[in-house]
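Sharing in case it's useful to others searching the archive later.

Someone asked me privately for the predicted structure of Arabinan endo-1,5-alpha-L-arabinosidase, so I'm posting the question and my answer publicly. Question first, with the sequence:
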Amino acid sequence: MMRRVFLTATPLSCLMLASPFAATAQDTNGGKITRFHDPSTPIRQQETWHIFSTGNGISTRTSTDLESWKEGPPVFKELPAWHRDVVSDHKGYLWAPDIIRQGGRYLLYYSVSGWGKNTSAIGLASSPTLDSKDPAYQWKDEGIVIRSGKEDAYNAIDPQLFADTDGRLWMVFGSFWTGIQLTELDAKTGLRHPENRKIHQLAWHESIEAAALLKHDGFYYLFVNWGLCCRGVDSTYEMRVGRSKEITGPYLDAAGNELVTGGGTLFMQSEGNRIGPGHPSFIREKDAIRMFFHYYDGNRRGHPTLGDATLEWNDNGWPKAGNKP
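And my answer, the predicted structure tokens:
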């Protein structure tokens, strides 16, 4: 699993500043967000939805209808000093954020990493509000949640949060290396659980990352991405899925193959102008499960664009992507 040529192993979140997809300026096309990578889970405060994405200091946008979006200020104007302790030449481009509300605070997780390496860390910032006009608005650095280096078998990027119905808080993460990992967090602090620091390997493939968890009808569904991103219309990203009765696995695909040994049922792939869909997140909205992701728009020279769809379920309980709401 470690025989990897990293010149061709390009993680979804690893957007170089020189990339044409790294632009953070607002660019809308018929209500769609373009020039947009790695959407967080959308989160609502009062009547406003907030979404975060890869960018300088972490990009932010707001909406009242999940359709038309406005650009907001970056999360970080000044970067925490520990970023350069992890990556000495880090320049502030932060990848693949995700957000959750716990204990009256908004907890924002994000990736600090170097291109093609597992010298990485997942950081945490917190704020009492998401309203940038509120006097209480301020992102507080909470430090490192987990980090990785060349001595580790995993890559600590691409966090996605999952609050279970029993009150426990979990984080899936990982990119390439030994694949997708799961660890429990302390629901009060948002950091690693002091009494359960075990890391569970959930899925593996030679090119895998950007995992997301969803619970439905007694199963935990693990969505992952295979293939290569960040190549515009040449991107090969596709989403795969497996499920388990236990959050820690084992996760099986529809044919009974374990995801940890390379299994995964195809969920979404390139179709028409929607090329390389990836990095999903889910919300429950109006009695439906709605999925957000990004793709490369073949009608717009491969610009990365925010997409969304509702989930539908077949008779055997496997998800499929329905139409846009």
